[in-house]
Specification:
The radius of gyration is 20 Å and the shape is elongated. It contains 8 helices and 15 strands. The strands form 5 sheets. It has a 6-stranded mixed beta sheet, with helices on both faces. It folds into 2 domains: about 1-90, no CATH class; about 95-235, tt1808, chain A (Alpha-Beta Complex), CATH 3.90.1570. It has about 240 residues and is of the alpha+beta class. It is about 30% helix and about 30% strand. It has helices at about 5-10, 10-20, 45, 60, 65-75, 95-110, 170-185, 235, and strands at about 1-5, 25-30, 30-35, 80, 85-90, 115-120, 125-130, 130-135, 140-145, 160-165, 190-195, 200-205, 210-215, 220-225, 230-235.
């Protein structure tokens, strides 16, 4: 990100904290004059945005929701913000995108003409968990409270259904941190698509409790418990021959 020198001078501590996530390029009179970047030898901070970053001082690593918004306003990168921690969203693989295309086509056609709307990433979703705000970009989501989209196109409602396709780097976040977040923020159904085992896990939530959990595999058809009639054949989702 690029920030003018006077802004950096007036809010140095703020930008020092944001330098943990990406380089801060300082400009003066329209020219680049300096750069603030995280010290590469400081593994605790440089690894914070990585999925396997489990060994660091979490209190030090936490960042406020307001600071997160400032970071994303000027950054070209995509981030998620969960429980005060920032996660960089890496570019998805071919298999990941292929699965998303198959599922999104099925879901789009099923919801055509209905009140609820399916959407795909990148699309920020602001969720409330306890007293904290969190921001995620689900691979696919279905929203029925379209009135919660503000005049700037920002959504701060509660999706009825959320779907994530896991990867090696997002497995822990999708199956633990996001499961907990979606459960406690009021989401009704959470689908996890596992391309490695060619399985789909469907969680149903009610009153912040898991009321149903199903595993679909091989030639089975995954079914929604919240949207009666919505179903997806695993044979159609998972390619028979991966590239």
């Amino acid at each position: 990100m690029e920030i003018i020198s006077t802004e950096v001078q007036n809010n140095f501590e703020h930008y020092l904290k944001l330098a943990r996530y990406e380089d801060i390029i300082v400009t003066k009179n329209g020219k680049r004059v300096a750069i603030i970047k995280c010290y590469e030898g400081n593994n605790e901070h440089t690894s914070i945005i990585a999925e396997k970053a489990n060994v660091y001082n979490r209190d030090e690593a936490r960042i406020s929701y307001e600071d997160f918004l400032k970071l994303t306003e000027v950054s070209e990168n995509r981030y998620e913000y969960i429980d005060g921690e920032i996660y960089l969203l890496a570019s998805p693989s071919y298999i990941h995108q292929s699965i998303i295309m198959e599922i999104s086509n099925i879901i789009y056609n099923w919801f055509k003409g209905k009140e609820c709307r399916p959407l795909t990433a990148p699309f920020d979703v602001t969720l409330i968990k306890g007293d904290e705000k969190n921001v995620v970009q689900p691979d696919i989501l279905v929203i029925c409270d379209i009135d919660k989209i503000d005049e700037n196109g920002r959504y701060k409602g509660i999706p009825a259904l959320v779907l994530e396709v896991i990867s090696e780097t997002t497995r822990h976040k999708d199956m633990l941190k996001k499961l907990d977040l979606y459960l406690h923020s009021g989401v009704r159904e959470y689908w996890i698509v596992n391309p490695f085992n060619k399985e789909v896990y469907v969680y149903s939530f009610e009153d912040k409790i898991i009321v149903d959990y199903r595993v679909y595999k091989e030639s089975e058809t995954a079914q929604s418990t919240f949207f009666c009639g919505l179903e997806i054949s695993l044979r159609q989702v998972f390619p028979q021959r991966q590239v």
